[in-house]
Input
Amino acid sequence: MTTPVKKTALTPGSRGKTREGASFPAPPPLAGLPGDYAEALAEIKQRIQQERLRVILAANSAMVLLYWDLGRMILDRQERAGWGAKVIDRLSADLREAFADMKGFSPRNLKYMRAFAAAWPERAIVQQLAAQIPWFHNCLLLDRVTDPAARQWYIHHVVEYGWSRNILSLQIDSRAHERQGQALTNFKATLPPRDSDMAVQVFKDPYLFDFLGTADPRREREVEQALVDHVQHFLLELGSGFAFVGRQVHLELAGRDYYLDLLFYHLKLRCYVVIELKAVPFDPAFIGRINVYLSAVDDLLRHADDKPTIGLLLCRSKDRIVVEYALRDLKKPIGVAGWETKIVEKLPEDLKGSLPTVQELEAELSREEGG
Output
């Protein structure tokens, strides 16, 4: 025989339906709460999110520093006592037995720790830089970047832009550190110093459109359409801060129709960016047209709070001296860079070293965790 359910009327402030020994609690309605409740809730949630992030970052930093310490110890023993691969294998087994609830003590990861300590001799520098990014990001940099200054460049950008490991891998493949800030510009002469310095670092040379394949487009419209079709890849190549506004943006000037190839807005520079694409080498005549477009965007689209519109002219090739003369006396900020579709070659085999790949290491650590 079943027990009859006791029916209760729901009223404002009611905690929900109940029966003997069971209930379905409901939160009080918003109508009966203080007027500043929503604001307080948002503030509390933000504080919790900040603290969670701080705890995660602190835990990551502590782990990376621990790995550096272990790597340093292994290096010291190798130098003083001639530790070899058999000793590391034994050390791995003993550590995993002693700390069965922890992962990361496989022979492969211990070798990464040793390589990590060798690549970063000073612990203070590790704490300031390498410990600020995840361990597998560090492993990827050990595998793929041999120059210490380049490693630091990538670490700064991972911290600033929150690159995932896959994005970091793509940036390394494209040799981003060699191209950033290399576009030919007149920014120092046309922008305030602070804006000029930031804008210079936003643009690169050349731009690599390898996601378009090995095709060699002959017409600008083909390139534009391909970039729009792959806009996510295109935005990644442009860099952080670019927001896509439109393609072939229509302007009417003195009764004539003009079309901007590509229009973006840069969130950090706080300005529109007009990109003109050319499937031919640079010609000084190109500057006149993009200069007109910048003036039109400033007059017709630019908000009072926006900074002056910047132009970026992308050509298949260019002569540095000709570009410098073409930009010298202009009042509008314009940059000129090349673009390529060829796929960037990976690092030579003889530079890859004997360490396992990051993917192999991740797979092994996952097996440890599961086992």
